[in-house]
Structures are given as structure tokens and as C-alpha cells.
Structure prediction request, 313 residues.
Amino acid sequence: MRLPSYRSSEILLLAYFAYAAALAVWFGLPASSIAKASALFAAAVVFFAILASFRRLGGAWRDWSPPLVLLAAYRELELFATSSPTHALEKSWQAMDRTFLNAWHARAAIESAGWLLPLYFELTYLLVYGIGLFSMLMVYRAHRRDLADRVLFVYLLGTLLAYSIIPFYPSQPPRSLFTDSGPLVTTPLRQLNLLIVNGAGVHTGVFPSAHVSSAFSAAWALLFLLREKRWAGWGMLIYAVSVAVATVYGRYHYAADAIAGFAVSLTAAAAAIVIRTSGRRALNRRSRAGSWPPQPPRSFVPKRLRGIQPNDS
Prediction:
């Protein structure tokens, strides 16, 4: 029986689920938590194997399913939820935030225009959950499905790296510990975000910020790999900066979390550069070998012309 051929993005997700299952054992979590982590890994193996085995069923589903499977990886972090009795990390991080928000008057500047900027930053925070799907939409709009797996790999790399670090830094968000430093302007979108993070969020830790790392990783993927839609990459980069500000202003994260999330995303940026460089080298090799420009896909060549080379007389 032929083994399924997994894509790079799928292998990355499977590696994370295997890592989480092993980490659950290493942390000495209850047997039920270890069983859940192992079951998630097994389910992901079977799910991606099904998509890889049935071409008609797979196809576009393999492009769109990884961002959805990522939600399961995010929720899995809840298995590692614990609490720190002293909150020493949070107190040290909060000192930096007070400087940014109060001494540097960042909060006052954001709220100087009333509800407008607070609403914008809450919207950017809310839209983070759709970054992966938006990236795939840009790939499809550029008619570059051949880049789907590479774009997904870079985006997932930065996001999953943040997930893999979070269990080692158990911490509570500033909105829970330091209620006196929250926004003074409340918008409907803030109420919606609080409803989501309080109800469906994870309580394992906030360092580093996966919101920030995923936004910047998507920006690097679009900027370095999707040359046909450079505006999307630059737009995503501006959006990622907005997300970083939103996480701190909204007290969803500390400034230290946002900085660490950006640092994690630089690994994804390096991966994107390597992928782009390797692609250019492969293109140059084909060009020197005389195989450029490439022949059109066989299914698009008229039957009467199949097998006839351009130089045949």
C-alpha cells in the first residue's frame, strides 16, 4: 500500500501535534490530558492522509484545511494551563507597559480621537483568526496555487513556534491582573473580543504573543513569496504592526509578549527567504539546462500537438 504524500505544511502541523503529545508526558500532565494530546496527533495523521490519498477530495481542501486545523493546535494549549502564585513575570512585564502606555502617553494618543482608533485596533485583533484564510485567498487571486504550501509553511512556522514556547511561561494576561491599566474607551468590538478570549481563549500563558507572530509570519510569507501581490504583503505588514499595538493597548498581552512574538516571526522570515532563494536557484538551473520557458501542462495542450516539441519540423 502506497503511503500518503504529506505536504510541508501538513508535516509541520503533525510535528507540532507530536511535540505537544510528548510535552504532555514530559510535564507530567494527567493521563486524560496525555490521551487527548495523543488523540489529536492521531486524528491529524488520519485527516491529512485522507486528503492526500483521495485527489478529488483533497485538491483545494489541502490549501484551506491547515488554517482550520491550526485552531485545534491553539485549543490544545489549554491542556497545559497552570498558574503562577507569585506572578513575578507579569509584574516585571507590567513595568514596561506602564512606561509605554502612561509615561509615553500611548494610551492617551490612541484615545485622543475618541472611539475611532480604539475601534480600529480592536478590529485588527479580531481579524487575526482569519489571517491564514486571507493568505490563501491572496494566493488564489494571484493564480499561484503552486505557492500555497510554501505560504502556509511560513505562516504556520511562526505561529506554531509561538505555541510551542507558551507552555514554558505560565502567565496571566494584563487585563486579568492589572485592571487599572485597561482602555478607557469601550467599543462593541472590544466587548466581542473579551467575550471570545474569556470564553474560547486559552489560559496557559501569553508569552510570546501568537497573535503577533502569526500576523508578521503571514506578512513575511506574502512579501517574500507572493511577488504578484506585493501590495498584500505590505498591507499585511502594516496590519501586523497594528496587531502588536492592539495587543498591548487592549491589555490582551504585555509589550514583552508582542516583542517576543515579532522575534519568533523572524524565524518564519528566514524560512521564507530560504524558500525564495532555493526557488530562484532551481529556476536558474532549469534555464541553463534549456528547459525554460516551461512547457504548458499536458492537459492544456491540444491532443494533436501532444508529443511535438517546439523545434520539431
Observations:
- The chain has two domains: 1-80, 85-289.
- The chain has 13 helices and no strands.
- Residues 294-306, 308-313 have pLDDT under 50 and may be disordered.
